[in-house]
TrEMBL record:
One of its GO terms (cellular component) is mitochondrial small ribosomal subunit. Pfam families: MRP-S25. The lineage of its organism: Eukaryota, Fungi, Dikarya, Basidiomycota, Agaricomycotina. It comes from Lentinus tigrinus ALCF2SS1-6. Keywords: Mitochondrion, Ribonucleoprotein, Ribosomal protein. This is Small ribosomal subunit protein mS23. It is found in: Mitochondrion.
Amino acid sequence: MATKRIANKVHKQASRLLREGYIQREPAWYRAVLNHPPLPVPAREPPSRSHFDAPLNAPLTRPAGSKKIQPLKIQYIEDEVRRQFFRDHPFEAFRQTTLVEGATVESEHPIRGAEWTRLRQRGRNPTAEDAIRYAVNLYEHHGMDLSSAYASAVAQFRSLRSELLVARAVAQTEAEQLGMEFGPSQVEITFAKEEKAFHTLREDGAQSQAAETERKRWKAAVEREGPPEQWTRGQEYTRLWKEGVRPVYAPVFVEPEIKPEGLEQPEQDAQRVAASSDYMRIISR
């Protein structure tokens, strides 16, 4: 008959079986469970916490009168320092970082703890994580409050970055004086990409305009001069017909011609064309 086991009783039962000789070898999980035993009953009650991974000024246990059964928040000091650091130095997040898949975790730097008194001890080109770890190290091993530790770490980080920028500028100037020719900078590459994008936009606009013109080639495009007049329902047309005024359509199709007697004006040719045809003839039935 199978019995129901409680989580915090399993390793105790395994200890009794090992002691009596029913189990010859320790299970693979035995030592790990002894070092980190399961939660006591009831399992939903969170254990007491330490300040190592608890938020600042937060209770380390659930209040007795609280009815919410939920785990306490896990937050390290590095999280607060890192959030403030990248809020003050947002462009540090855009620096290139090499991510190697399957790489092992690097061992801790030999200079740490009370021996780590200056950020320069870990190199003249510190990263953002070096500054964050240095601030936490000052807080934990040198008795400084977190605000003072952060201010000291940021000041040393900016000083080292300034020295590095000046050294690079001087080295580049010396190299150019000796005849070195450098390729385009990142700013120039970005401007070239923007110019290429602008040219592509202009080409796309020209193609779209050409396609629109081809689509509208067989549509009537009437060009009017001046504001459009009101529609008279043909009354103006009838009045001009009764007065013998002929409409002139010829100027659209007539071009000036050079003859022996001189240049013929389009208006004269238009009147001649209009007089030769009666556009206002009404056929009565």
